[in-house]
Amino acid sequence: MDIIFGNPDDLRTHTYWELYGPLHLIWLAGIAIVCILACLAFRKASPEKQQKVLKLFSVWILIQEMIKNLLYWRVDALTYDLLPLHICGISIIFCLWYAFKPGKLNGAYIYGVCLPGALSALIFSDWTDLPWYNFSALNSFTIHGELVIFAMLVLTAGLLKPDFNQIPKMAIVMYALAIPIYFLNKIWDTNFMFINYPSPGSPLVPLYDIFGNGYVIAAAVMLVVIWIILFLPWKLLSKKQVD
Predict the structure, then answer these.
(1) DSSP-derived secondary structure for 120-159
(2) What is the pLDDT of residues 10-32, one digit of tens each?
(3) Cα–Cα distance between 157 and 149 in angstroms, integer?
(4) What pTM does this model have?
(5) Half-sphere exposure of 141 (CA within 13 A, CB side)
(6) Is 107:154 a contact under the CB 8 Å cutoff?
(7) Pick from 90, 9, 98: which is nearest to 55 by CA?
(8) Cys-Cys with 84: which of 89, 145, 167, 200 at CB 3.0–4.6 Å?
């Protein structure tokens, strides 16, 4: 039981499973299958039931994150790094916000930050130094999967229509969050939003290799470019429908 509910820091001694190895691929396939089935069922539900599902789902994601932190506290491993100030931690708050009060800005965040952020976390998992059945690893797989599923539910049901015009507002929100988080990283020696250095194995690593400590500026520019690529098809589609 210690390896399941034990202190994750005591287990980080070697690589327990490989990126894109059988275990990783099984998790990705399982999440994909659950996502597809959930989206099919969600689309058939009535609008009232859809809203209820989104609210309950978003609350559950928040509760799961709190349970994880309680388990960290139980094994005396609770640190500042576990505050919900990483990109996906912030996404939990935005999912809750969108579920109870959907809007264009929080919807754009769900599509432009939550979905690609959670997908990236799953694809470039940085918890290979934990057994997959440790509570921290299980939480990492499931909660990122749940964020992906939440985003796909609202997208495939047509509840969320990404708005290209929200990109400037999203940039302001992200940069406004990044500034205080930058200083908190300095105070607490954390790496929220990967401002200090990228997650190992992620697409941000080449940027860090090229730009060093200034890579975060290049990453901020790259983020806007990615948003343009993600949101432009929706803008063109809406324009075509109007014409």
Answers:
(1) HHHHT-S-TTS-TTSHHHHHHHHHHHHHHHHHHHHHHTTS
(2) 888 888 999 999 999 999 999 99
(3) 12
(4) 0.93
(5) 21
(6) yes
(7) 98
(8) 89
